[in-house]
Every structure is written in structure tokens, then in C-alpha cells.
Amino acid sequence: MKKSKKLLWMLLSALVVLVLAACGGDDDSATDSGTKGDSGGSTDSNAREVIIGGLWDLTGGTSDVGAPFAEGAEAYVGYINSKGIEGLNIKLIGKDYGYVIPEAQKLYQEHRDKAGVQAIIGFGTGDTEALRQQVAADEFPFVSGSLSENLKDTKESPYNFLVAASYSDQGRALLKWIKDNHEGGEPTVALLYNDTAFGRSPVEDMKAYAKEIGVKVVDEQVIDVKATEAQSQLLNMEKKNPDYAIIQQTWAATSTILRDAKTLEIDTQFMGLNWTTGEGLFDNVDAATAEGYMGVLINSMPGDDVPGMAEIEEYVTGKGKKMEDINQKFVQGWVTAKIMVEGIKKAAELYPDGDIKGAQIREGMESLTDLDLGGVAANVSYSADNHAGTKEIRIGVVKDGKWEAITDYISFED
Amino acid sequence: MRNLFVRESGNYKTSYVNDMKLFGTVSQKVKIAVIVGVLLLVPLFTSNYWIGLLTLCAISAIGAIGLNILTGFTGQISIGVGAFLGVGGYTSAIITSTYGLSFWISLPLAGLITAIVGGIFGLPALRLKGLYLAIATLAAQVIILFIISRWTSVTGGTSGMVLSRPSIGSFTFMSNTSYYYLAIVILLLTVLYATNLLRTRVGRAFLAVRDRDIAAQIMGINLFKYKVLAFAVSSFFVGIAGALLAHYTMIVSPELYSTTVSIEYLAMILIGGLGSVFGSIIGAVFITLLPVSLGMAIDMVTVYFPDLYHLLSAFKEFAFGLVIILFLIFEPGGLAHIWLNIKKYFKLWPFSY
Predict the structure, then answer these.
(1) How many angstroms away from the CA of B169 is the closest CA of chain A?
(2) What value does the mean pLDDT of chain B take?
(3) What pTM did the predictor assign?
């Protein structure tokens, strides 16, 4: 009895070890399969490879702006690889997380452990803020579609970079414009936002700044990011009769607000932050309803006459598409990817030998000063204690179904 | 060597104590030793990525077992799981980040506070059953999330709070492997507790309440006490799972604990099998790995059809709903029942019954 028990134990443990060794032995091959791959461009065998992980929203709540953003970023990497960079091979692996934070968490781990990325381009505010501690611990520079003020804090988000003015800075610039251009007494403002980290990000900062410069915030209304009707919130806002209303939403909710405002015949001047502007607005509202709507333009519209638009045009027409097929969020994605790639190039210069790691890419990005984006976006500068990039925006207005800039790149500090 | 399929034959139990033993026979002890051994040795053989996924599965399993104690053992429907996870996570965040106490104090405290909150929201259970109780617990979900989003001074509002990994002395649980061991140990303790619960007076009372609560009341079981106790015990484990998850991702924010999470946990226990601890674990693993496996399948298909990536990504939501419906139609007993059927088939082979 005792002998057979011992035999049983030995047999079982040997079996367990064999089974585990068999299924677990793919550790090396898993990380290899992600990094080897043809990304075109430089066929120089000495080229160092840098892999960027992308977290896109293609199917979730903000996919109306997330999908073109992803397209633009992937287009830029395709463009830069077709031109080829000296000694560098850049690869972008993008995955959809559907604006659900736990999915972003899992995909981030997949990027880190399976694909072996050195940097990340993200999208949503909620997940970017959720991941900032982890990317700091794992040392991956993170640029994002999100422009939340919290990401500027180099203590809590040491590896995050903003590629344009933060939502709070955009809001401040709009409030300053209101103060400077309002005629007749103290201007009154209402804030319309949604109940997510993205929506609430600039609210407190805007209220504090409004108090500072003498603009009265009379009302705040919460409207869901995918709302298809907002009449009750707008009627509540109407009671306070604000002169201006600042919107922090994406195209979906913005078009709902403008449509319902026209139906209810509300005469408040609506203004919005960067995700409310762009051509996608006209998919759901006609030009007459959107006429006079103002907003923050952090990037040029496709087809604008600026030097930086030439390369976008070259790439788009090279793919057999027309400039009308892309929109402003495509340009934003393009610029986001471009800033990251410039940082990588700088890192390659600073460290000519050996593999380029995330910490070195961060140094490369921090050494970017007044990076010229050819007028497609405001020039950005970073340093070791400043990851904000820029505070400058343009303000635009809808005229005859098209966006027109009414200011040049200004900030609230001018 | 004895035939593995007739391990119980010849094992005559002569007392109630022997009958109720969890690990009475040698074969049961061996089985447990093998399972625990495999679980503890897994990190040596798999990549970091899979260890991270298994950690998430383990944490979800703890939450699923908690929910199963409430829904599977006591028959009380609850759609408030997401919010209770949030309470656990935020409690741990506040205790460790704001008050600076150690994780090892905040973990049980998070469980206790979530148990109290769960008990309070379980009070309507005395008068409400089924669908009405579900709506009452949905109210818990909405109210708790509302409080978390608005109580900015304590919880940081929608920007959430940042946490750090636990540490013992100078060793911090930063790596995936160390946190995996932490999660597995807590999962094993939870499984032991839940399996043992059914042998006790309280567990039997829960089962009686589920089967026919009026009969249970007549027998002398205080319905109110046991229903609230079920909510409290269940929320304790959900709170522990929430705290573990919060320290794993190192961030808490209201968006992480939406109604979608509650539905996911309900799906875990439905697919795994109501009333079965093993079922909760399998269900948790299944639901956690479903998006991952769908993603891998999509990646493989995208190699041949690169332009369909956008379309296929939307397929994940569809697949989730489809899986739940198929399980409810064809196997309401869940994966645990399927597993039992497989075991029975081999036990009775070559006979069919």
C-alpha cells in the first residue's frame, strides 16, 4: 500500500511537470512573433526597430472621432515607412478597446508582454489616466488623443505627453475670447459636458478661470456622450439664459445639442472644445442648424493651405483616395503619430548605439523644442518638467457648412 | 493502483463527521494537492502576458464566488456587483493612499466596509423578490456610482485615485508573478470558505431560503437575518476582489465599475453554473478570456481580410450576447453541469446510465 502510494505520487508529479512544460514552453516564441515582421521602408539590416502600440476606439462610445484618429495615426506611420528613416524601422500595432477601460488594460498588457512595444499611442481620457502609473512603471512614453489636464502632472503622469492644448487650456482660451469680445456687461456661460473622465476633465479648471477673469458660469448640464436627445437639459439651461454655452463632447452629442437647440429656438451662442469641431458634425446636422457654431480647432482642416498639409495630400492621393475622404480627426491622428516619431528620431540621435528603449524615447521627446508641424497644428515644445506641448489653439466658426478659423494660434496667456 | 473512476468504492463512512469531511479520502487529498501544485507552478512555465491574464481571471473568480454565494446559494438576484467592486476598490484606495495605511490592513477593511454597504442595500430583500429585487440592487449600482463620482473631496471624482502595489517590508508586488501568487492564495482561501459554507448551519439556511423561503420561514429560519447575511458575506468577497483589482491596475475611477461590469459578473455565474463554486471559477475564466480569444481569432482572420478589422472588432459584443443566450437555451446548468456530465459519462462507461 505505502509503496504504491509513493509510486502514485511520483507518477502524478512527473505528469504534471510534463504537461506544464509542454503548454508553457512558448514564452520566447510569443515575444518573438510580435517583433519580427516586415513594416516596409528601410531594409537596412542595421536598422533599429521601434514598435509603437496603439489603443484605438473603433467601435465604442467615441468611435465617431476615434476611428478617423486611428486611421490618421496609422497613415502617418505608413507614410514615414514608405519614405524610410535612416537607421530606424518603426512599426505601429493598433488594437481596438471599444472605450471600455478594462479592455484597454488587457490590450496594454498584450502590447507590453506579447508585442514588446517601446511606446504607446492611446486615445480615451479614462483609460489614459488609468494606465499612467503602469506606463510610468514600465517606462513607455504615452501620447494620446486625450488632452486631459491631469496628464500634464509630471509627478503622477511622468511618461505622458500632450500633443495639443489641454482641454482646460482650450476652455480657458474660449473664456478669454468671450471676455474680450462680449459686448454689454458681464458675460454668462453655461457648461455642457458628459459624465465621464473626458467630460469632466476641464470643468473645474474652467470654473476657476472664469471666476478669475470675471465671466459668470450660471449653469452646468450633464448630457450623455452618445445622447440622441438633450431637450430637458437644454430647457433647464434656457431658464438661466446664458449668453454662451461651452460644450465638451464628441460629434454625436454636439450635433444632438445643436439640433435640439434649434428646435427649442434657444439663442445662446454655442462653442465647443476640440472634439466637437470638424466635418463629422455635418453628418448629423445640416449646415443651417450648425451655422454660427464656434469651436476650438487644434488642427487644420484637410485641404487647408498650409505647408504641412502637402505630405498628408501626398499620402492620401497616393492611396487612391481624395482629400474629401478624410477629416480633421484624421489630421489630429496624423499629427499625434508624427510627434511621437519625431521623439523617436531624436532618441535615435541621442543614443546612436544599442536598442532604443522607452526611457530613451522619453528623453528624445523632452528634447523637442518648437517642433515645426507646418501649420497643421500649433508647434510643440517639451522639457523634463513640461509635458504640455503647447497652450495654443485656433478658434473657428461654421460658415456655410464649412469651418473657418477666425483667429490664428493664440493661447489664453496672450 | 485503484481504478480512478471508482475511487469512492469501499469507502464506508461510519459517522456524520466522516460523511461531512471535505478531504476524507486519499484520492481527494491527492486531487487537491495536484490542483494547488499546478496553480502554484504555472508562472514558471508561461509568459508574463498569460500570468497577467490568469491574475485577472483569479480576481474575477473571487468576485464571481462572492456573487454566487448570493445568487446561487441564496437565490437573491443582484445587479449591484459592479458598484460593490467599486466600493472595495475605493475603500482600499482611500485607506492606502489618503491615510497611508498598509495594504494588509486595507484589504480586510475593504471587505468589511463593502460587506456593511452590501448588507444595507440588501435590506429591501426582505420584501422584494426576483425582478423587483434586481431593480432595487440596480438602484444600489447607480447610487453608489453617483456618490463616488460626486464626492470629489474623498474619492477624487471622475479623475479617480492612484494606488500603489502592496509590499511586505522591502519586497513590493510589482511583477506580474508576485501579484499572481497573491491572487491565487486569496482565491484558494475563498474557495475553501465557500465550499465549507455549505456544510454549516448558515449555508444550509441559505439553500433553504433559495429553495422555498416560505417553508424555510415556517421551519424557523429568520429570513431577514439570513438574507441580509447573504448580501453581507457576498459583498465581503466582492469587496476583496475589488481591492485586489484596484491594486493590480493601480487606479480606480468610476468608469471601471459600470453596469456593464455587473452584467459581466452575472454572465460569469450563469455560464459557469449557479450554485457551484467550481462553476464560478470556470465562468470567470471563460468570460475574462472571451475577448482575448476573440481578439486572437480576429487577428488571424485579419491577415487574410485586412480591411474587415473594424467590422470584426464589433463582433466581440455580438459574441458575448450570443454566448449567454446559447448557454441559457442549451445548458442552463452552465459549464459546471457540462463538466459533471463528462465525469458521469466516464464513470458509467460503457454503460449509458
Answers:
(1) 20
(2) 89
(3) 0.82
